[in-house]
Write a sequence for this structure.
């Protein structure tokens, strides 16, 4: 099939490492030199657009989405026709060089809009799982792959996790582990008027950074978490990416605004006690999607949290259509919820 548009849906990989030397935890993976990061990204087929760091982690905006490097954790998220899983071996190699060993791997993605345009190993979830099984070291022996369904066969959540037997606690958050969740939101059929805000004016004379900053303010993205330091970038002629840094919390947004295959994603680490309602409402108001999925991953979940999410989103014209819950090794629970605009049929 001919490629008819840009694939907005990201592939996301999260790798955790451990080491015996406590000094490693101070910088850890952040000691990997920039040239090595570039080599990893070469295998994936994307490049660094900008990079910033605070005292907790480094955040990179990529030509196709984002990379976050913590002392013992890496999150890499790439869209388009990138070959994300090819980053695993080089990342393990560079981590080993600084005395760190892989102890968990988590791969997630939604359903591609243009699945036939994906190169190996992203040609199917089966191919991805086979590649993961063959690539990750045998000490990650607790493994599970699952396709979590929704009411629509074209929207599923693909999850693969693998953990070693020993649990390694390297968290620096001030919250208890059971409160923390990762939330991945995928949105399609964006409101065309709102999506226009992610197009540049021809010959605007701006840099990608200054045009990005303008989009962050014009769209209200800066109001999602006013405490976050934002690193943003506007592509030419359209498209937008940002990383937010708030102490050790990251957030990230990516937008493909083109009509016919419009897509936006929002991701953050949150706590049950944080202002999740405000965040969700802002995200929906910025994009007004026709369809939206919210996937949360945490060591546990409460019906109260899910109710909070639905109550935040439904008054804005979206209706919750499906919910799937699945448990993974090392007591990780994933909840996949889908919503569609009330004006549209399921
Ligand atoms: C990298 S961004 C955001 C990706 C994100 N996964 C998403 O779709 O929301 C993709 C958008 O930027 C546009 N774009 C323009 N120049 C690009 C480039 N050099 N590399 C990648 N995307 C580019 C694409 O057409 C698309 O609208």
């Amino acid at each position: 099939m001919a490629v008819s548009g840009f694939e907005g849906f990201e592939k996301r990989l999260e790798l955790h490492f451990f080491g015996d030397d406590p000094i490693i935890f101070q910088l850890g993976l952040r000691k990997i030199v920039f040239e090595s990061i570039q080599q990893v990204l070469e295998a994936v087929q994307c490049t660094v657009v900008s990079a910033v760091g605070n005292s907790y982690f480094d955040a990179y905006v990529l030509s196709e989405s984002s990379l976050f490097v913590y002392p013992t954790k890496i999150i890499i998220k790439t869209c388009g026709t990138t070959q994300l899983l090819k980053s695993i071996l080089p990342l393990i190699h560079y981590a080993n060089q600084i005395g760190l060993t892989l102890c968990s791997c988590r791969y997630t993605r939604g359903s591609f809009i243009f699945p036939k345009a994906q190169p190996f190993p992203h040609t199917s979830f089966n191919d991805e799982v086979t590649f993961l099984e063959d690539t990750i070291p045998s000490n990650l022996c607790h493994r599970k792959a699952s396709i979590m369904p929704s009411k629509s066969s074209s929207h599923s959540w693909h999850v693969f996790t693998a953990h070693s037997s020993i649990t390694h606690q390297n968290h620096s958050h001030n919250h208890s582990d059971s409160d923390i969740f990762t939330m991945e939101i995928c949105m399609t059929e964006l409101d065309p008027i709102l999506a226009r805000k992610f197009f540049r004016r021809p010959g605007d004379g701006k840099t990608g950074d200054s045009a990005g900053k303008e989009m962050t303010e014009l769209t209200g993205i800066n109001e999602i978490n006013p405490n976050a330091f934002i690193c943003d970038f506007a592509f030419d002629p359209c498209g937008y990416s940002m990383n937010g840094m708030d102490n050790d919390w990251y957030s990230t947004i990516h937008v493909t605004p083109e009509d016919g295959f419009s897509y936006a994603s929002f991701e953050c680490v949150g706590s049950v006690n944080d202002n999740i309602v405000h965040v969700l409402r802002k995200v929906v108001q910025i994009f007004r999607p026709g369809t939206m999925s919210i996937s949360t991953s945490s060591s546990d979940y409460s019906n109260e949290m899910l109710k909070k999410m639905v109550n935040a989103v439904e008054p804005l014209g979206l209706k919750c259509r499906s919910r799937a819950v699945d448990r993974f090794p090392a007591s990780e629970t994933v909840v996949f919820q889908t919503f569609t605009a009330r004006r549209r049929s399921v």
In short: The chain has eight helices and 16 strands.
